TrEMBL record:
Protein name as catalogued: Isocitrate dehydrogenase (NAD+)
PANTHER family referenced in this protein's UniProt entry, alphabetically: DECARBOXYLATING DEHYDROGENASES-ISOCITRATE, ISOPROPYLMALATE, TARTRATE (PTHR11835), ISOCITRATE DEHYDROGENASE [NAD] SUBUNIT ALPHA, MITOCHONDRIAL (PTHR11835:SF34)
Family: Belongs to the isocitrate and isopropylmalate dehydrogenases family.
Lineage: Bacteria, Bacillati, Bacillota, Negativicutes, Selenomonadales
Superkingdom of origin: Bacteria
Family annotation (SUPFAM superfamilies): Isocitrate/Isopropylmalate dehydrogenase-like (SSF53659)
Domain Isopropylmalate dehydrogenase-like residues, every copy: 3-328
GO biological processes: isocitrate metabolic process; tricarboxylic acid cycle
Organism this protein belongs to: Sporomusa malonica
One Pfam family per UniProt: Iso_dh
PROSITE patterns: IDH_IMDH
UniProt keywords, alphabetically: Oxidoreductase
Gene Ontology MF terms: isocitrate dehydrogenase (NAD+) activity; magnesium ion binding; NAD binding
Listed Gene3D superfamilies: Isopropylmalate Dehydrogenase
Length: 333
């Protein structure tokens, strides 16, 4: 039995977390939950958006699953997601993006790619400051160590999962030192994996190519900022953030997450889509080595989506969160 830190999150987070827990229990997933708080819920419970109790739980359990957290724009406390990644050195942001049955998209032939995003540096290092009253400066930090280890993770994943190509994302035509360093490191790592095709693409061109022909890509490898942008872009190709899982992985621990927002406008209405939380939980089970139960949960979810009879409003239906969870449970094999 695995003890996992569960951070339900803000807004719709508690509702989708409850749905996920019910499905996990019905599937017999060998998990016990330690409920902790962060974001607005952390402030409510402990007057702290990232309480020490939550950090201590993650340190002890080594694995966490979290719902969406409120991030204030332009003011207030630092992003909790960024703080968690920095605190636990969760250098690898992993976002599988795959078309699901029953989800209508612009790509009937299907999309199946994976985004590897370096998670600890670049413009998200937090090294920014004001210059007088009329200007501000942010530093773009790229290091060899961070670039090599995210590249290593991407190539190892590609090798283990039968992926044929890794594409490094950059803007080295303009940022020759920072993005140039990133590319030098990815090229070095690529040489160790001769069976995997390696190429490179400029970030703005990639955005266009993803919209026009996403099937061209397999594994995308990017520094932090570009990875953040293309992760959400890619989610839009397959139906949005409500049907895409995410993970933040380090050498000591991992945090899996529903990557969509808190959706305060529908919070408490029991109409949120629990798919992303379930898929993220499935990734967590894979990480723990519980691949059979993870596959059962995914198969049940895909069956419900394919049938199209029980879908939440974001998918065009009228079902509640509870309805969808119950339908998934009924389809567990």
């Amino acid at each position: 039995m695995y003890k996992v830190t569960l951070i339900p999150g803000d807004g719709i987070g508690p509702e989708i977390s409850e749905a996920m827990q019910n499905v996990f229990a019905a599937a017999g997933a060998p998990v016990t939950w330690e409920i902790c708080y962060a974001g607005q819920a952390g402030i409510t419970q402990y007057s702290d958006p990232l309480p020490e109790q939550t950090l201590a739980s993650i340190r002890h359990n080594k694995v966490a699953l979290k719902g969406p957290l409120t991030t204030q724009v332009g003011e207030g406390y630092r992003s909790i997601n960024v703080s968690l990644r920095k605190t636990f050195d969760l250098y690898c942001n992993l976002r599988p993006v795959k078309s699901l049955p029953g989800i209508k998209t612009r790509y009937p032939e299907g999309v199946d790619l994976v985004v590897f995003r370096e998670n600890t540096e670049d413009l998200y290092s937090g090294a920014e400051h004001r210059m007088g009253s009329h200007a501000a400066v942010g530093l773009k930090i790229i290091t060899e160590d961070a670039s090599r280890r995210i590249a290593q993770a991407a190539f190892e994943y590609a090798s283990a999962h039968g992926r044929k190509k890794v594409t490094a994302v950059h803007k080295a035509n303009i940022m020759k030192l920072t993005d140039g360093l990133f590319l030098n490191c990815t090229r070095e790592v690529a040489k160790k994996f001769p069976d995997i095709h390696y190429d490179e693409v400029i970030i703005d061109n990639l955005c266009m190519q993803l919209v026009v022909q996403p099937q061209k890509y397999d594994v995308l490898l990017a520094p932090n900022l570009y990875g953040d942008i293309i992760s959400d872009l890619c989610a839009g190709l397959v139906g949005g953030l409500g049907v895409v899982p995410g993970a933040n992985i380090g050498t000591e621990c991992a945090i899996f997450e529903a990557v969509h927002g808190t959706a305060p406008d529908i919070a408490g209405k029991n109409i949120a889509n629990p798919a992303a939380m379930l898929l993220s939980g499935g990734m967590m089970l894979d990480y723990l080595g519980e691949k059979v139960v993870a596959s059962r949960i995914r198969a049940a979810l895909e069956k419900v989506l394919a049938d199209g009879e029980v879908q939440t409003p974001d998918l065009g239906g009228k079902a509640t969160t509870s309805d969808m969870a119950a339908a998934i449970i009924a389809n567990l094999k």
